Amino acid sequence: MSTHRYVATCFWDDAWIQELEPDEKLLYMYLLTNSLTNIAGVYKITSRRMSFDTGIDRARLAEILSSFEAARKAAFVEEYIILPNWPKHQKTHSKDTRAGIDRVLASLPPAVLSMLKGIGYQYDAIPEGAPVGVPQGAYGGPIGVPQGAYGGPIGVPQGNPPTLPYLADKPNLAGQPNPTPAKAAAALVDNSPEEEQASLREYAARIAVERKARNVPAMVRKLMLEPDVIAAWKLERVPKAAPVAQPGAPNAERAPPPPTCTCGGEIKAALTVGEGICLACGKPWTFDRDWNEWYPDPPVESSA
């Protein structure tokens, strides 16, 4: 029997939805309504399946999912989709609903559980994840340590182990929190000279036009904060060495058109190579670049 998913009509009035591109709206609606969704809004699905069902290619799919995560609307980790606002729209006061959500969350890998907290999953009973850096055995405990009934070492009272922190909340070597990719990109753009910002804006506008964006200014703002776009823009700005002209190459200096052959026939010539042949008598001709003249090969002997 099929499962029904109901979407409120106010979905299309949401300010965030209105700013999305058509393929972004399609993907977000797909994440809410595909056949793999469950009561917790956390389910396993491959990028191949998402790409096949929506017709969005893998590269664009990854780009959209990254923007969803930056907006804290969805996350894709270890082939699990997380919809952080999903529980907010469920009847979580119901024991059956809570039991269903708890059952799904209890089956999730530690990294997915950690992401639930990092992205702001709207549920008040998220299970704890596994300790950071500890190899996990078959039942979720450290390898080589006998496991008790609740997954911890035998004879050791069990508290709540530390959870794997979300990258944005994890201090770096300087003791400062790591920014999210979107915040890091925003800081990079804001601290750049005005001429570089204008150049990046022009590059983003070109991409937005190529993608046939309906709301070009909104797409430009979004693209300017995407690390992949910034990297491609930087690569485009790297000075490229001028190609060395080689005889016969498309970038070689072209010879002028050849004259009429001494027999009166037409000379067919490759101007970049500087060589030709008469179509009437078959006599070869060569362009002398030093004297800037065409000569028959061998030269015609003077009759004087």
- So, CATH architecture of the largest domain? Orthogonal Bundle
> Strand portion, in percent?
5-15%
Instruction: Give the helices and strands as they follow along the chain.
Output: HHEHHEEHHHHHHEEEE
Low-confidence stretches: 130-174, 243-251, 300-304
**Rg, Å, rounded:** 33 Å
The CATH first-level class of the largest domain comes to: Mainly Alpha
CA-CA gap between termini:
104 Å
The whole-number mean of residue pLDDT values reads 74
What's the story with the biggest beta sheet? 4 strands, antiparallel
Strand order of the largest sheet: 4-5-6-7
* Number of E strands: 7
Helix content: 25-40%
| Overall shape | elongated
**Alpha-beta content class:** alpha+beta
| CATH topology tier name of the largest domain | Arc Repressor Mutant, subunit A
Question: How many DSSP H or I helices?
Answer: 10
Write up this protein.
With 304 residues, this protein is an alpha+beta fold. The chain folds into three domains: 9-136 and 160-169, Winged helix-like DNA-binding domain superfamily/Winged helix DNA-binding domain (Arc Repressor Mutant, subunit A, Orthogonal Bundle), CATH 1.10.10.10; 181-237, no CATH class; 249-304, no CATH class. 34% of the residues lie in helices and 9% in strands. The chain is built from ten helices and seven strands. Helix 8 (194-210) packs across helix 9 (216-223). The protein is elongated, with a radius of gyration of 33 Å.
